[in-house]
Specification:
- The chain is an alpha/beta fold and 329 residues long.
- Strands 13-12-11-14-15-17-16 form a seven-stranded mixed sheet. Strands 2-3-1-4 form a four-stranded antiparallel sheet, with helices on one face. The chain has a four-stranded mixed sheet with strand order 5-6-7-8, with helices on one face.
Length: 329
C-alpha cells in the first residue's frame, strides 16, 4: 500500500521524526524505512507536514507495524481505565464520551469482554455501587492476583484491585499455623492467600453474596479446608471465637473503630491487628491509635509496629494502616 513519507538524510532522522511527532502527523501504523543514507518517515497527511519538509514527501510502501492497538491510539487521547479480570471499568459522567471510550476499548487489543461505567458512588451497608454496562454482557469476572483467582460480581460485592500490593504486603508476613480472623472478608482477597500460606482463617462478611463467592473462591484456590466462611456480622460470633486470634484483619476503613471492642474480644494471648482507617492528613494515625488503646484498656499492652499510608483517599485525607500488636497482661 502506498503511504506518504518524508525522506531525509539519515543523520537528521531523529530530529525530523520528533518534529513530525510534535506536529501530530507521524504515522504510527507503519514502519520507518532506512535505505542507504536516507530515512523514510511515514506520515498521515502530507498537507499537514511542516512546511520545511513538504518538498521531501514521497510515496513508499512500508510494512505495517505489528503492535497492540490501544484505546488511546483510537481516541487520540488517554482515557482513564481500570482493569478487573475481563472487565474494563470507566468513570465518565458524559454519556456520549462514555460510549466513545467503550467502543474504543472493544476495538482495541485490550483483553476485554465487557466495558462498564460507574453509575453511582459506593452505597449502603454492603458497600456496593450501581453500574451501566456499555459493551458486552454482565458484571461478573475472574480477577487474578499474585497466583490466586477471585470470582466476583462488582454489582453485588465490594472489591478494589488497586489494593493488590497492599494485600500482598500483609499476606507475606503470615506464618503457617496461625489463626487469622478476617472480620470483613469480602470475596477473600486476604483470607484465601493467607490460608494458602498455611493459616487457619475465619472469614466473616455481612454480605451473603460475598461469602458465597468466598466459598467458591476457596474451592477454586484449593484452600477450602483452611477457611471457615461466615455470613453475618462478626460481632455475632465474637463469643464463639473469643480469645483465639493470632492475627486480625480489619479492612473497613470508614467504621473499623466501631468493631474494636469485638477485635479485643477475639484476640488471643498475643495478636497482631491490621487496622485500616481514613483520617485527615494532619493526624492520620493518632485517632486510630487512641481508639485501639481505649478498646484494649487494661487487658492488653499495645505496641504500634507500623504506621503506613496506603493511598490518598480524598483531598487532605489518607487511607492508612496500623499494625498493632496486642499482648495480654
Amino acid at each position: 500500500m502506498s503511504v506518504p513519507c518524508v525522506a531525509v538524510d539519515r543523520e537528521r532522522g531523529e530530529a525530523v521524526r520528533t518534529r513530525l511527532a510534535d506536529a501530530g502527523v507521524l504515522d504510527g501504523d507503519h514502519e520507518i524505512d532506512v535505505v542507504d543514507d536516507t530515512i523514510y518517515l511515514p506520515v498521515t497527511e502530507p498537507s499537514a507536514v511542516p512546511a520545511a519538509f513538504r518538498d521531501r514527501v514521497v510515496e513508499r510502501d512500508p510494512d505495517e507495524r505489528d503492535r497492540p492497538r490501544t484505546p488511546a491510539e483510537i481516541l487520540g487521547d488517554e482515557p482513564s481505565l481500570e482493569r478487573l479480570g475481563e472487565l474494563v471499568i470507566i468513570d465518565e459522567d458524559d454519556e456520549d464520551r462514555a460510549r466513545e471510550i467503550a467502543d474504543a476499548v472493544m476495538a482495541s487489543d485490550v483483553p476485554c469482554e465487557t466495558v462498564i461505567n460507574r453509575a453511582s458512588p459506593i452505597e449502603g451497608e454492603l458497600r456496593v455501587r450501581r453500574w451501566e454496562v456499555l459493551a458486552g454482557d454482565g458484571t461478573e469476572t475472574v480477577h487474578r492476583e499474585y497466583g490466586h483467582e477471585f470470582l466476583l460480581d462488582v454489582a453485588e460485592v465490594y472489591f478494589s484491585p488497586r489494593l493488590a500490593t497492599e494485600r500482598r504486603r500483609i499476606v507475606e508476613t503470615v506464618e503457617p499455623g496461625e489463626t487469622v480472623i478476617d472480620m470483613f472478608a469480602g470475596v477473600g482477597p486476604y483470607a484465601i492467600p493467607m490460608a494458602a500460606r498455611g493459616a487457619d482463617v475465619v472469614a466473616c462478611d455481612l454480605n451473603e453474596r460475598a461469602i458465597e463467592y468466598l466459598r467458591e473462591n476457596a474451592e477454586r484456590n484449593g484452600v477450602a479446608d483452611r477457611i471457615t466462611a461466615i455470613a453475618g456480622d462478626v460481632r455475632a460470633v465474637a463469643d464463639e471465637y473469643a480469645d483465639t486470634a493470632d492475627r486480625l484483619v480489619m479492612n473497613l476503613p470508614h467504621s473499623a473503630d466501631e468493631f474494636l471492642d469485638t477485635a479485643v474480644r477475639l484476640a488471643g494471648e498475643e495478636c497482631l491487628v491490621h487496622y485500616y482507617d481514613i483520617q485527615h492528613e494532619d493526624d492520620p494515625f493518632g485517632p486510630g491509635i487512641e481508639a485501639i488503646r481505649e478498646a484494649a484498656g487494661e487487658a492488653y499492652d499495645v505496641d504500634v509496629e507500623t504506621e503506613h499510608v496506603v493511598r490518598s483517599y480524598a483531598p487532605h485525607e489518607y487511607n492508612v494502616r496500623l499494625d498493632v500488636r496486642l499482648t495480654r497482661r
